[in-house]
Write a structure and sequence with these properties.
This protein has 1 helix and 8 strands. The protein has 115 residues and is mainly beta. The strands form 2 sheets. A 4-stranded mixed beta sheet has the order 1-7-6-5, with no helix packed on it. A 4-stranded antiparallel beta sheet has the order 2-3-4-8, with no helix packed on it. The longest helix has 8 residues. The protein starts with 5 loop residues before the first strand and ends with a strand.
Amino acid sequence: MASGQSWQPWRDERRWREAFGARGGSGASEQWVWGAAPGAHGGVRLQRQGDQLVIEVDVPGAEGSDLDVHVGRNAILVRGAAGSRRVDLPVTVQGARARVHRRREGITVTVPTGE
């Protein structure tokens, strides 16, 4: 993916409903992978855990400590020396309450869903 390009897997609402389901409920734990497989070049994984969304973004060749991460209401922006990557989220999240864990070659963000 070119630097600065927006990755938007959520354009199709039907795809979202099939993936996360319209059934709601707390305690649900589901996981989906877009892009590359876990640990491969540029993988993104999203997992719903109750009212939390866990997003893992792989950034090959970068140390997590070298990445600038901004979590907004509807997207995550990850910037590094080699460029940036935007991940649009399927639901509104409480970006100010996000926890960012920086790891070797990527980040893991845990953020509450809702307003």
